[in-house]
Amino acid sequence: MKHRLLRLLHLAHRWLGIGAGLLILGWFVSGIVMLYVPFPKLTTEERLAHLEVLRPDAIRLSPAAAAQACAEKPRSARLSMADGRPVFHFSAGKEACSVWADDGTPVAVTSDTATATARRFLSGASGTGVERVERDQWTVYTTYNNHRPLLRVSMDDAAGTDLYISSRSGEVLLDTTRFERGWNWIGTVAHWFYFTPLRGDDTTLWRQLVLWLPGVAMFTVAAGLTLGIQRLRIRRRYPRGSVTPYRGWKRWHHLLGVTVGGLAATWLVSGWLSNHPFGLLAFSSLPKGAAQKLAGLPFTPSDDLALLRRQLAQVPDAREAEWYRFGGRSYLEVRTQGATQRLDDQARPAAPFTPEALAAAIARIEDKAVASAELIHEPDLYHYGRRNQAVFPAARIRLADAEDTTWYLDPTTGRVLSRIDDANRLHRWVFNGLHRLDIPPLHALPALREGLATGLCALGALLGASGCVLGWRRLRHPKASAR
C-alpha cells in the first residue's frame, strides 16, 4: 500500500510538475521584480507637485452652487486649479463630476484639452497621440471606474511616459514609463494574472484562476517534498556517500526541493490565502455605518464662499483643498508641497483630536467599553509602513472585548487608519508575515528584509527552473527520462 501511494505521488508530481514548474518559476521571478518595481501609480506627492497654486480671488462660486451642475448628490469635494482656472472636483455616484469654480459650467474634456493638460504636467515634452481607452493593462483597478473612459496621452520624453487623464475631471490620474511597463509585465502582471481581459467588469475567470492554479502548484510541491524527504539519506547514504540517488538536474532538483520546498509551500499557501478562497483569511471590515457615525453628518457642500476664501488665505501656497467632516463639524484640509494644514469652520487652524475624544467616538460605534486610548509615535506590530510611510503620531484605541479589537486613527483628521481584530491579526501574520516577511525585526529593517526575500525567491526560482528542465526533457525524450 505504501509503495503504491508513493508511486501515485511520484506520477502526480512528475506530470503536474511539468506545468506547475512554470507557475512556480514565474511566481518567484515576478516576486523579485515586485520588490523593486511596484505597479505604476500616481502618488499624492507627485500629483501635488504638478498642480498650480490656488487663486482664491478667481473663485466665484461656493461648492454648493457649483454642485448644482452635477447630476447626482456629491459625497465629497476637492478644489484645485487647471489651466489657470479654479475647479471643484466632486465624487458623485458612478461618475466623477467636475465644475469650474469661476462660471459654474461642467468641465468638458476633449483630446485637445487632454494634450494641453499632459504638456503642463510634463513640461518640456509634447504629446505624440491621444487614445480613448475604457480599460487597459495599467488601469485595471476599480478606483478608475468613476473616471472612465480615460484619455491616454503618449509623450515624447526620454522615459516614454504615458499619461492617463480622466474624461470626467480632466485630471491626470496615472503616469507610467517605459521602464515601469516593461518590468511589470514580468512583475505584478504575471504574479497576479493582471491581464486586461481577466480584469474587466466580470472578474469571474480571474477569480477561478487565482483559486485553482495555486492549488495545483501547492499539491505538486507537497508531493515533491514528501518524495524528496523519503528519498533523502543522511545516515545510511547512497554509494559514494551521496544523500540523494540522483545525478545531474535531478540531483539539484532533489536537493533544492528538500531545502527550500517547505519555503515554497509556505509562500504558495500564504499567497493563495491572500485572495480569501472559500472565505478563508478574509478581512473583517469596519462596523456598518462607522464612517458616517464618525463624520456625524452626511457630506453637504458648503455654501459659504467668504469662509472658503478666508480659509485659503491662511495658506498662500496651497495646491489643493479637500472638505471632510468629523463629529458633526466641517473641516478643510489644505495641501501644499510637503505639508498639510487643516482649518475648521471658522477658518482657524484645527487642533488635533485627543485620544479620549476619538475613544468616545469608537465606543459609541462599537457599543463596547474602551480599555485604553493613547498616542503612539513609533510602529507597533499592526501599524507600520511598507512602501508608504505610516501616519505618526497615531491614536491607538483598544476595546475591552474578547478579541482585543484595536482601532488606529489619525488624530489630526479623525480618519480611520485601520481596525484590527482576530481576523485581521491572522491575515497580518499569515500574509504579511509569511508571504512578505514583515516580521520583527525585519519589518523595521527594509533593506535586510528585501535582501533576504530576494535570496529566498532566487532559490525558489532555481527549484522551479530545475523542475521545468526535467519536465522539458520528459516531454522530448520520455523513455530516456524514465531511466
Structure characterization notes:
The protein has 483 residues and is an alpha+beta fold. It folds into three domains: 2-37 and 201-281 and 449-482; 44-184, no CATH class; 352-411, no CATH class. It contains 14 helices and 14 strands. It has helices at residues 2-36, 44-49, 63-67, 111-121, 178-185, 188-192, 204-231, 248-273, 290-295, 305-313, 355-366, 422-435, 446-476, 478-482, and strands at 76-82, 85-92, 95-100, 127-133, 150-155, 162-166, 172-176, 320-326, 329-336, 339-343, 370-376, 394-399, 406-409, 416-420. Strands 3-2-1-8-9-10 form a six-stranded antiparallel β-sheet. Strands 4-5-6-7 form a four-stranded antiparallel β-sheet. Strands 11-12-13-14 form a four-stranded antiparallel β-sheet. A hairpin with a 6-residue loop joins β12 and β13 (406-409). α1 crosses α7 and α1 crosses α13 (446-476). The longest helix is centred in the first third of the chain and has 35 residues, at 2-36. The relative contact order is 0.12. The mean pLDDT is 93.
> Roughly how many Å is the radius of gyration?
27 Å
Q: Based on Cα principal axes, name the global outline.
A: globular
The overall average pLDDT, rounded, is: 93
Helix and strand content put the structural class at alpha+beta
Number of β-strand runs: 14
